[in-house]
Amino acid sequence: MSENQQSLVHIEDGVLRIAVATAEHGTSLSPAGMEQGTAALRAAGPEIGAVLLVGEGSNFCAGGNVRGFAGAEDRGAHLLDIANLFHDFIREIDAIGVPVVAAVHGWAAGAGMSIVLHADVALAGPGTKMRAAYPSIGFSPDGGMSWTLPRIVGPARAREIIMTDAVINADEGVRLGLLSRLVADDEIGSEALRVARTLAHGPTQSYAAIRRLVAESDSRSLSDHLDAEAAAISAAATTPTGIEGVDSFVEKRRPDWAAARARS
């Protein structure tokens, strides 16, 4: 069955699972995964508490389908279509108000590395490797890599990583902040799912505010950002999530986040 004929999106226990690559075409970026994932993200309602990004194959995502690029009648038009499809997906990942977890195994190269840099939590194994990959085929980045990477490692290091097409091993990925933490290679999928499920059943309104504040921090002065934090924490105090969190603390009981979400 080709990837266009299979569902690459699944919803289970509050987690929206999206396969960004399959074994087809050498675990390159999946157009079907992008289309189905974008549609699912746009349609996500309150039943979705977290997003889990996975690769179905030997790698998380080894980049774009270079053989497909080579075979296109009009390479420029073909790449523009692929980039626009990919970027629709990235925009929805950025806009979703719930935590995004990536289960990274094998290679996360090119588009795969770009996707990892958008995850709130990126778990990987000791054998995971990352690589910009674009210069190796004479391309510049897509998927937001030239936007996210400088914000993580600084402009100078970002230029070096992309231009030299450096292979970044798992330990270095964690040290640089590209990956959150490492787990055993055979536990990446199960641990990422556990984290996604835990987040999906947590204080989702709080997570949405955290994502928004962190995303907007780079465009504000400290003083303006302090004002934004004050407004956000004040607003949180009157939401069902904030009320339940404070009340459960005072009453010395576990918070019932599901009940809080139901009241939202």
TrEMBL record:
It comes from the Bacteria. Its EC number is 3.8.1.7. It is an enzyme of class 3 (hydrolase). GO terms for biological process: fatty acid metabolic process. It is found in: Peroxisome. Pfam families: ECH_1. Keywords: Fatty acid metabolism, Hydrolase, Isomerase, Lipid metabolism, Peroxisome. GO terms for molecular function: 3-hydroxyacyl-CoA dehydratase activity; 4-chlorobenzoyl-CoA dehalogenase activity; delta(3)-delta(2)-enoyl-CoA isomerase activity. It catalyses: a (3S)-3-hydroxyacyl-CoA = a (2E)-enoyl-CoA + H2O; a 4-saturated-(3S)-3-hydroxyacyl-CoA = a (3E)-enoyl-CoA + H2O. Could possibly oxidize fatty acids using specific components. Belongs to the enoyl-CoA hydratase/isomerase family. This is Enoyl-CoA hydratase. It comes from Rhodococcus coprophilus. The lineage of its organism: Bacteria, Bacillati, Actinomycetota, Actinomycetes, Mycobacteriales.
